[in-house]
Amino acid sequence: MASDFLRTKVFAKAERDSRYVQRNPGMNPTHTRFTREGWHLMFILVFVLIGAVLRNVNLLVLLASLIAGMFVIQWRICRRSLLHLSLIRKFPANIQAGRAFEVRLQIENPSQLLPTWLICAEERLERLEPYPTQNAVGTTVVVPWIPANSKTDAGYECSLLYRGRYRMGPLRVSTAFPFGLMRGWFLQNFTVEILVRPKRGQLLGRWQSLIQLERQGLAKTASRAGVNEGEFYGLRAWQHGDSRRWIHWRTTARLNELAVRQFEQQQKMTLAIVVDLWSAPDSNPLINPDPNIEKIISFIATFVESMCRHGNHQISVALAGSQLRVSTRIQNRSVLESVLDDLAIIAPSEKPDLLGAIEQLFPIMADSRSLLVISNRPAVLDPLRTSIKGETQRTLMDKVQVRWINVSKGELDPFFKMEDS
Amino acid sequence: MIDKFRWYLAIHFAILGIMAAFLVSIEEGTLRLPMLVGVVAITSLIFTDRLEWFQLHRYLGYVGMILGAGLALSNFFAPTDSGRLYSIATMLAYAEIVLYLQKKTQRIFEQLGVFILLELVVAALLTEKVLFGILLIPVLAVSLSTMILFTHYIALATEGKNSVKERLTLEQLWNIFLNRVPANNAKQAVPIALKPTPRQDWSMRLQHTAWVLQAAPLAISVLGFALLFFYLLPRTNLDTYSVPSFSSPVVGFTEQMKLNQFGEVLRSDQLVMRVSFRNSKTNEPYEVQQAPYLRAVVLEDYTADVEGSGVWQQRREVSSVPLRDLPAERFVAPRYRQTGDWVNVRFALEKTQSSSLFCVAPTCVISAQGFRPHFIPEDWRIHSQDLVMDTTYKKINYTIGTGQFRNGLEHSIIPEASDYFSNEFSEAIHYNGLTSTRRVALTRIEPKRFPGLIALGDRIKAEAGNDGQTPIGFALGAESYFSSGIDYQYTLDLTQQRDRKLDAIEDFIVNHKKGHCQYFASAMAMMLRSQKIPTRIVIGYRPNEYNELGKFFTVRQNDAHSWVEAYFTKEELRESKLFAEQDTMTGGWLRFDPTPPGEESNSGGILRRRNAAPDFFQEFWNRNILEMNQSSQSGSIYDAISKSNNPYASSIRALQRWLNRFDESQSDEESEISTEWFSIPIAAWFIGLGSVISIVWWFAYRQIGKLAPMLRPKRYYTERLPATVKFFERCLRVLAKLGFRRAEYQTPKELTMQAATWLSDKHRQTQAASTLNELTDAYYQIRFGNGETAKSDSSVGLPVDCSSNSKSFASNLNSLDSAVERFQKSIKDLPKHRT
Q1: Strands A136-146 and B163-165
Q2: Which of B458, B486, B478 is nearest to B521 (CA)?
Q3: Does B487 score more than 80 pLDDT?
Q4: In whole angstroms, what separates CA B745 from the centre of its chain?
Q5: Which residues 636-665 in chain B show a CB within 8 A of chain A?
Q6: pLDDT of B219-270, one tens digit each?
Q7: Pick from B316, B485, B295, B323: which is nearest to B400 by CA?
Q8: β-sheet bridge partners, residue A32
Q9: Which of A66, A165, A172 to mutate to probe the B interface, most B CBs <10 Å?
């Protein structure tokens, strides 16, 4: 009942604000409340006024009038300053964990006559995924002065240590100018959710051997491209994310389906990677996040980005954690961004769906005949093999070379190093 | 940056502390306290705030405050209320001193502000000087500047602080209530670091001291509001607070006066009162041509003490006529109201130790604040029993009326009270004039004590010839003789050795021949008594300092004067042929002033007109601020309500009576209790006035954007849709009634397509669907521009080009409006869409 009551009150206030905005577009529903200094002065004012009126002490009435005048002037300037103020928040599109980025606030004062002073914009940031936090973090940005009919910029530098989905806002804009007796404020109710992508690391010199090993199971008929990069190599079916400039129209017309040119050949690889994000049953990632999980995710992000830069490799990644996310043939920017977004919010699970991940990657494994599993636990493939449905898939699974990298044993260390935050 | 703000704040608080201490010390007259606070404040600015050589620890500060409080309160048991208030102010100042010596933080600044404000409150209770009001303006300006700076300081201190905002769930609140600690209570650190980008305009604010300039217009606004609030606040008392003195007052007269005592009085220039004269008909200042005689005490009995020095005192026998309230103007006999100039004389007395009041006889009461003036009909003495009971030495204000002036000159004959007031009043007071008993008392003289005086009187009478044979002639001759200054000179120097074997008056007549006004008056009084003329001495003031700015007389102690009043019968007055009113009187008292005029003498009567601004401002301050009470507001907006006979008005009076219960000295005998609390006319008036004000406000507020576009703020992001697409708003309202409301993710086109699909598929309203689509296209063209909308064979007759720059834009709008109406009619009977 208490929570219902609170929710009703909060809802009622939000409802009132929303009705106010509908009736008065362009105006902010401003609230005011006393500050500590205001409460002190109000107490003295009441005390003085009562004494003055009862004993007819005119000088005390005069003093009380002056104090009351301060309150009235404070209240009006507070409300008027904030009434038409508007803010826009700007931040970069790609945010990476561990790297500072700047959030810009553009504040506009459309009033023709009245400047505004000491505008405090209180930002609030909290993480929603993968591990939602109970506490939000806030900071205050203060703009000392905004002239009439002008805009000004303010900002703050933000460093997010962990990846995830964060909610920014709502923005609380307030001012206590001029006397600090009251603080007027309003909520700028645009909240934004930002995805903070995983930290990148550095692929160490031996990372090529990781991929070369993968090629041991490949067919050796993979042809090599010419010396020059960028030469026309061949055609393939159009995939989501391909540039329209690559479309080979003659072939498309002939085949009646889109075909694109391939320009690079080099050492084309087809690689299937399963990311096994496992958490122990008694672990509490909210309090003790597993560094190995983060290392895995950072590695995958770095690896995929690096592979995609070359553009010729077909990397397919299946993320088995709290959810199963599969991205096949990561070759262009949009798919890469999608993978990075998935990596930003994926969380470990006590029972990651490894089997489902492998099953989704069977078409890829049919070409590459290899599978790379990055995990933070020892290999658990044998029970999986028996669970595979379908005779063909089981046969394929028997023929595929599986490499299991146990990060908790340090098996990834020769190939990857995390960035120092 | 924040250190700079702190430094400026420290300077501001130092200035404020010194000013507050100075305001406290105005009435006391010494600069001990402001100097002490000043020295400590400046020292702390240098050594505590700037150099940081010495900073008192917080707990040591508390100890210091306790010690300072003890030191100040040791003087709390002072004999006067002002002394006690001053000790409280001193305690506050000592606490400030301790705070100055501590490191300045937000908490210290807040505490300093509170203490300084409390000191101002005490100062308001301690002084009545206009200097307080004058200094209040710079104090206000500095205070506002301090508060603005403090707001900046707090904002700068808050900037950049990462605050962790804990969201308490109800379960956690319940656990806290039950004092239960949950198992997993570890606070989660949010690995986020936020740091504001440094700004340049903070230093700009400091450099240009912008906040100081902001304080001036804000101070004017606050002052304007304060004055409005001050005058609009309804007062419920007639009495106002009077600041208690630091010492007993020394102004006023006692009921007996020794001859040598009067000289001491004449040496003091302490302010006694301010007296203003106004024409009662026009209320304009009345131009008095000579210094007026302001009567205070009437002394009739003269006795000599052992040393031979005379003592004048009020008559000893019990008066046969009891004290009466000084009557109001309506009781004055018409012949006295019609002759001469009827003048209202306002007296504003400083604190006095005597219950005797001042007047210009003959007189009646016009108004008196907080007391009832009484008068003694035999000698026109005015005083108040209420003042006798009150020992707090308050300031007194009252106004009397008199017809004693003619063309600015004060008439010298004072009629008897029995002649002055109407017959029924005179009969009620049982006074019919001078009785034989009193006549004997007023002519009493011991001839053996005054041989020289009597001989002088005989000589004056002989030299006056026939004119000196009548009593009035003799009296005028004696006045002329003494006031000539030939044989007797005026002096305040009484250091000469006196012959103690002689009476002081005899000694003055025979030996010294020099003295002040009381000697001259005493000598003439005795001389007239030796000729059997009833005579008495009157002591009062005769001010000659006239303030041209404020149109009032400033009366000081050294304006004290003594003169003679002698009684003459109706026949004696007629015989002299000098006075016109004798036919209407039974007798009258004639005023004589035997003191020779001179530089130190108050007898000349020549006015010194001055533009004494300090005195004017003090009087202005007294009348408009200090003495604001219920009667002062009687001419204001409350007048109509309070004087109305309407029952609604009587409810306000009933409320005032309820408030007056706090002060039991107030009693309202003339009030009537009304049971009716509501009045239809008054209520209708207020409702009508309120409605008019609301309509005017709404009109001005809404229309001001059109009348003065410059004042209307620009709204970039949430501007209303332009009026040109109102037809589409109507269209959306029609769809809303049908059950189609635009969701957040939907564009207008998606909504109308959804509705059109529903209309055509479900209800076969293809025409309506088509209209809807065309209206949407028209909206898009108007809103976003470009392109044609309807096909040239529009089924609903919509224009092809709906862009706002088309020539037929206005008529196109009309056709769009009509189309909306048709659309509305066509779907009128359809059931509501349910999702």
Answers
A1: antiparallel
A2: B478
A3: yes
A4: 64
A5: 662
A6: 999 999 998 888 887 776 666 777 766 555 556 677 777 777 777 777 777 8
A7: B295
A8: A184
A9: A66
Dihedral-angle region of residue A241 (phi above 0 means left; psi in -120 to 50 means alpha; beta otherwise):
left
Burial track B254-276 (b if 16+ CB lie within 10 A, e otherwise): eeebbbbebbebbeeeeebbbbb
Taking the C-alpha atoms of B816, B820, B823 and B827 in order, what is their torsion angle to the nearest 10 degrees?
170
Distance from CA of B725 to the nearest CA of A (A): 17
pTM confidence score: 0.71
* Side chain identity, residue B360: V
Decide if A66 and B140 are in contact by the 8 Å CB cutoff. yes
A–B: how many Cβ contacts below 8 A? 243
Half-sphere exposure of residue B83: CA atoms within 13 angstroms, side-chain side: 10
- A60 contacts in chain B (CB < 8 Å): 121, 124-125
Higher pLDDT: B605 or B249? It is B605
With tokens 């332009």, the residue in question is: B722
Q: How far off is chain A from B505, nearest CA to CA, in Å? A: 50
Of B117, B226, B715, the CB nearest to A62: B226
What is the layout of strands, in order, in the sheet containing B374-376?
A: B324-325, B374-376, B381-383, B356-357
Q: Distance of CA B133 to CAs B123, B366, B624, Å?
A: 11, 30, 12
Contact between chains at B152 and A135 (C-beta distance less than 8 A): no
Interface check B241 vs A, CB under 8 A? yes
Q: Which residue has the tokens 């009862």?
A: A54
Are β-strands A95-96 and A192-197 bridged in parallel, bridged antiparallel, or unpaired? parallel
Closest Cα in chain B, distance from residue A320 (Å):
26
Put simply, the chain B residues between 549 and 568 with a CB less than 8 A from any chain A CB are none
The token pair at A114 is 């009245």
Q: Which residues of B touch A37 (CB under 8 A)?
A: 110, 113, 150
Chain B positions in Cβ-Cβ contact with residue A73 (cut-off 8 Å): 218, 221-222, 225
Interface of B with A in 707-736 (CB under 8 A): 710-720
% pLDDT > 70, chain B: 73
Residue A110 to residue B718: CA distance in whole angstroms: 12
Task: For strands B374-376 and B381-383, give the pairing.
Answer: antiparallel
Is residue A157 helix, strand or coil?
strand
Q: At what angle do helices A58-83 and B130-158 cross, to 10 degrees?
A: 30
Q: Which chain B residues are Cβ-neighbours of A25 within 8 angstroms?
A: 715, 718-720
Q: What is the pLDDT along chain A (421 residues), one digit of tens a residue?
A: 444 554 555 555 666 676 676 666 667 788 899 999 999 999 999 999 888 887 788 899 999 999 999 999 999 999 988 988 888 888 888 888 888 888 888 888 888 888 888 899 888 888 888 877 767 788 888 888 888 888 888 888 888 888 888 888 788 899 998 999 999 998 877 778 888 999 888 888 766 666 654 444 444 444 343 334 455 667 777 777 788 888 888 888 888 888 888 765 455 667 888 999 888 887 776 667 788 898 999 999 998 888 887 666 778 899 988 888 888 878 777 888 888 888 998 888 888 888 888 888 888 777 777 788 899 888 877 777 777 777 777 777 777 778 888 888 888 888 888 876 5
CB–CB contact A40 B114 (8 Å): yes
Q: Does B390 have pLDDT greater than 50?
A: yes
Contact B619, B547 (CB under 8 A): yes
The three-class DSSP label of residue B126 is: helix
Task: Retrieve residue B260's tokens.
Answer: 């040598």
Taking the alpha carbons at both ends of chain A, their separation in whole angstroms is 46
Nearest beta carbon to residue B190 from set A72, A120, A133: A133
Selecting from B163, B627, B720 the residue whose C-beta is nearest the C-beta of A138 gives B163
